Amino acid sequence: MVEVFAVASGKGGTGKTTSTVALGMALSDRYDVTVVDADTGMANLLFHAGLSDAETTLHDVLADEAPVEAATYDRFGLTVVPCGTSLDGFRDADPDRLRDVVAALAEDTDIILLDSPPALDSRTSVLPIVLADRIVVVLQPTIPAISDGLKVQEYATTYDTDVAGLLFNKVRESESIEQVSEKTERYFDGPTLAAVPESERAREARRAGRPLLAHAPECEAATAYRAAAESLTVRDGAAADAADRFQSAVIPESL
Amino acid sequence: MKLPHGRLDKSRVVTDPRDTLADVLDRELTGYAVFESQETLLLDGEGRGVMTFTDGVPVLVYHTGTDRGGPPALADLAVPGPYHVSLYTLDAADLESAHEAADLRVPPGMPAERLGGDPALADSTRRAAPDERLSAMGDGDATAPDDGTADQSAVEAFLDDAEKIEAIKQQARSEARERAQEWDF
Ligand SMILES: Nc1ncnc2c1ncn2[C@@H]1O[C@H](COP(=O)(O)OP(=O)(O)O)[C@@H](O)[C@H]1O
Ligand SMILES: [Mg+2]
Question: What superfamily in CATH does domain A3-232 come from?
């Protein structure tokens, strides 16, 4: 079985990368999890996962210069596919190869999390959402973040990708998140998975180049991510045709 | 709102109004910005938002489409980008009489908070604001108990506007369909 999730939001800085790694680690208790840095223009998952000196990355794979296996690393109980940060690497990468990458990884894992770009303005930035079975929308409890999140959802559902749920992040104590999340849910096709507090631990973890769940597993933010993982019911995609599914993932004919 | 004509400083399309607010703060601009949403389909896409600044810190906000000022005008402006933004500079003295319009005033950090969705930028804006603006308005978090809740209610007011949200969703769906063909998936 395999299910592919794109961790997405319309804005940068909401905590997609932090959430991708944290959800991945929380899910790895029950599943075999692979996380992929699909934000190929502004990659930073490598800095969150202690892989800043990774030799071979997704850029090399997308440039057809290395097989996927050469860019996969076992870290913190996850299979991690980091992406490089150089402009040259981005230029030489063929974003469409992401389909084949996902298809190849799908043969051998239960869950793939795609850390997605913060925009919807190009074919490359939308591809992870098209390839995914469902999206996890990362929101901050602010008007622009919610309205950008709505936009991401509508793109996803238009492209036949469902919504697994919402993750509120960087929630401040002063914010009455219950009311906001209840009202937000009216407009989204998925439930709130968790509200993750604004946390000094998260910033420390990033500076230390370690995932939040490794750096401060008992902190409130880490606990919230584990709760999110608990409430996510993973659907069994048929393993046999997984490869096929991602290679041919397209926008539905009805458009 | 009556403003004297300023000298055009910059005119461009931005996807995120946060960038404009950060730029204005960074350059300590005195003058005003005119925001025009490119999303003409949206309910409040009609009309323009005007925001004045003293030394990079927001003072007044007014929306020409809804004829509302102050915090409600910020809500009118809060639609997904892109926006066309023109920045104009003025001498502080030329803004003095306009700045007497207390009903159009916003707390210094509120535009960064609500339009930009960036609490950190809101914090630096509040730090740049003169003391009397902070105490008079009650803006921000722990230092001014007033605003955390005010800001929260802005998010809730936004979420209560089902019609506006439906318009945002509809706009996104039609954009997604158009783009699908353009991108040839
Ligand atoms: N819950 C949180 N509390 C405080 N800081 C956070 C939290 N989540 C993420 N951050 C910080 O915010 C910044 C952006 O997070 P990141 O995950 O890189 O966002 P994105 O991938 O959406 O751009 C990072 O410095 C990260 O450490
Ligand atoms: Mg990121």
Answer: P-loop containing nucleotide triphosphate hydrolases (3.40.50.300)
